[in-house]
Fold each of these.
Amino acid sequence: MLLVVKRTLGYFLKQMRQLRGFPQRTVANSLNITCSTLSKYENDALQPNVQTLKQISSLYKTSLDRLTGYYYEKYIKRLKGDKLFSDIEKVLEELNS
């Protein structure tokens, strides 16, 4: 049994902003949007368009894969095919039963 916490686009947007130490106002001003709009992106109430995502990834100096969480999804899929990972999953299943 694999415990995977679903991370949303908003989660990754907020995490990246905080990791870079940017206040919402600074990011919003750089993107020519309101703080309210940025907050909606970060809380998954509104989805940024592709152009805005490109601007954000450039501002945060990261790839779109990392910004959107796709990088992490690929990593989890690779782990699932690993024998050690499979063994750990089996042990966890036994412990939970």
Note: The first helix runs from residue 9 to 20.
Amino acid sequence: MWHACAGSKHRQMPLTDEVEAPKECILSGESPSSAVIALKRTIICCAERRAVDLYCTGGLESSPLLAYLNQLSSFCFALGLLENHHAGLSTGMAKGK
């Protein structure tokens, strides 16, 4: 399972009428397909961090790329929640209550 924290940008993101965004850290990858989505999100987040490093050091002049990678990561987060919902699975919380 992949760990993901629902930051404020994710809580504000309208997923659909079907799925409510969690307000705390979750365990992603409840199904094989949502695990693949979580892995893709992890790779996108690594690319986003690298792009920020390049941008800050002058090695990247395209700031729209940063926004694109950020939105793509948010989309993958939402897609993973929706995939769990359609599979009939609930998204587990990282800390049990």
Note: The longest helix spans residues 32-56.
Amino acid sequence: MEATLFAFASTVTTAAAEATGAVESALTSFAAGVLPSEVTTTLPASAGQVSVPLALELAAVFVGAVLGGLAAADHKLDVMGMATLGIATGLGGGIIRD
């Protein structure tokens, strides 16, 4: 019974790896066909994460918070509404960016 389960698990793992490779190649070829050549990249999808300097990351969160505060001021919200919207846009933009 254990040998059968092990064989099944290894088969599923192999199939999943092959499917992932097929999806990556399909997406790459689709992107190459749709996007202009200056937009497509030659790096593989598994090239890794790009490191953003901490100062730039904090500046982006600050700008998002200020824009949220300005939007709250346009809608005539009180200080608590400005703080809430500023925090939501500042941190929300950082979370989406990550």
Note: The chain is about 75% helix and 0% strand.
Amino acid sequence: MMNERLKLAKNLLKNDGVIFVSIDDNEQAYLKVLMDEIFGEENFVTNFIWQKKSGGGLNKLIYEGHEYILCYSKNNYNFCLSEKNKKMRSEEHTSELQ
């Protein structure tokens, strides 16, 4: 079921779009493999770790108060975090065409 939804999400993204998917520790590794397959390893942007709450919870030895947020771009070439990167990529593309 997650596979079909991620494929649909990819098709709905613009070429310079990104997707953020939040998941807990139990399924994070599987999701990374699945998203690499669907979006391509080259389109992996980063893996954020989000702290949900403070404190150690019931177990003082292991902290489980976080989730993972995987970020992928639809097309890594079109994805830019800043205007400076967009300008650099545009210049690279122009020089490649010459």
Note: The chain is about 40% helix and 20% strand.
